[in-house]
Every structure is written in C-alpha cells, then in structure tokens.
Amino acid sequence: MGSIRLPDTISVPAHLSYSSLSTYAECGERYRLGRGYGLDKSTWFASVAGSAIHEITEAIDLNLDFEVGVEERTFASLFDELLAKEAERGTEVKASGRVLKSIGKGGGPNKKDRDWWLIYGPTYVEAWRQWRADNPSWKVAVMPSGEPGVEVKVSASMGDVPFVGYIDRLFWVDDSELVAIDLKTGALPPSKLQLGTYKVALENQWGISPRFGAYWIASEGDVNKLWDLEHYTADYVANAFSMARR
After folding, report:
1. CA 154 – CA 203 distance, rounded (Å)
2. Which contacts (CB < 8 Å, 24+ apart) does range 8-13 have?
3. Alpha helix (H) residue ranges in 27-93
4. pLDDT digits (tens, 9 = 90+) for 205-241
5. Cα 83 to chain center, whole Å?
6. Chain centre distance of CA 222
C-alpha cells in the first residue's frame, strides 16, 4: 500500500466553530489530517439526515410561531436531495451505528444507512412536532435584530480566537426564561461546553444571556434536562478556544 504525500502547508482556519473545537479535542491528529490537510472526503448518513431534520424542524417552528408559510419538505425528498449533492461532490457517505439482524433503534443489517434513516428520519421530525405541541409555553424568541430565534448565527471573539456558530433555537419559556436549545439526532454530547459557548457568544454579540441551555434528543423526543450555564464565563470559554488555536 503506497503512502499518502501530504501537502507542504497546512490550512489554518480563519475562525473556529464549536464542531472544530470538539473534533480537535477528541483527536488532534484527525483534525490535522482532515481539516488541516483536507484529506477527509467522507461524511455520514447521520450527518446528512441531521441537516434534513434541522431544515424541516426550522420550517415547522417558523410556521408555528410566526405564521410565515414556509414549505415543510418531506424527510425522504430532502434527504435524497442532500445525498445527491454529496454524490456530486464525490463525497463518500458512510453508515454509523451497529450491525443488527433487522432494523432497530441502534442500527440494522447495514448499520444506520439510507434505509434506516428513511424509517427513523420522519419519526424524529414528528417527535419534534409533537414536542412543540406538548410544550405550548415554549415560544421561539425574537432576536434584537427582529429575526426569529431559529438557526441564530453568532459571530464573536473567544479571547483571541474568532468564533462563528449557529444556535438551533432560542426559546422563551413562560415568557420569562430564555433557553438555548441544540437539536441532537445522535448521542448526547459528553460536555455542555457547546451550550456554554453559545451563551457567551450571545452575550458578546447581542447582549442577551440565556441562563439555561438544553439538548433536545431526537431519539427520546424531549430535552434531556435544563443545564445551568452561569459558570460558563467569557474567560472559561476563551481559554478552551485559545488552547485549541495554539
């Protein structure tokens, strides 16, 4: 097997996202090869499905809380459209999960492949719709710019590191408590740093500060719990990004 010749230079990003930070924290060498040298030309069915679910749930919320009449695509049509785009780019799409005799929650005969997601993707979309119906006191916030708190772009400096991120939802709960939500179509993250990073970014850019954050877990159809974000200060988050940047 021949060796791979690496480029002479590594590409250093102009800014870091939280996904970049978490990838680096999990495995610095994978980050170096994949993002620095651009050698990773693959993705996951789970990632593509997650993009489809995010887009559909965004339309659900915009229509529910703002009555804007956004088209709500079916999961199957949007998922296949996104898979076709990956194929055009020459990206290999891989299946995660476990090999099981039949399709179940953890995988199937071909793990969590296209067939698996065509079953569970629509289920996750409907779980979000049901969760919104079951929690009428949760309303999508309106940003100081006047835009809905859906897929909120935040761009701020974490110490000496430029940061760009997208917050899935900002909700007012009972018209009194601001909560940042991140939708997860996979496993629950081991850290709450992502939510803390969003809190600090909102403070820096908009001057608003959600005290609580939560992950909405698609497989459970619910938020796991409300996490108090008070101890995620600007210095705390900046240190994490500065270490990764160095």
Report:
1. 10
2. 10/36, 10/37, 11/35, 11/36, 11/37, 11/38, 12/36
3. 28-31, 45-66, 75-88
4. 999 999 999 999 999 999 989 999 999 999 999 888 7
5. 18
6. 16
Q: Which residue has the tokens 């991120």?
A: 165
- Asked if residues 181 and 171 have their Cβ atoms less than 8 Å apart, the reply is yes
Q: What is the dihedral of CA 218, 58, 232, 177, to 10 degrees?
A: -100
57: amino acid identity, one letter: T
Number of helical (H) and strand (E) elements in the chain, helices listed first: 7, 11
User: Residue 151 corresponds to which tokens in the numbers above?
Assistant: 């897929």
pLDDT < 50 positions in the chain: 1-2, 4, 25-27, 33
Q: What is residue 93's three-state secondary structure?
A: strand
Residues present in the chain in total: 246
Whole-structure pTM value: 0.84
Contact 174, 137 (CB under 8 A): yes
Residue found under tokens 């698996």: 116
**Alpha carbons 213 and 87: distance in angstroms, whole number:** 36
- Beta-carbon contacts of 204 under 8 Å, excluding residues fewer than 6 positions away, are 154, 156, 157, 234
CA distances (Å), origin 225, targets 44, 115, 211: 27, 31, 13
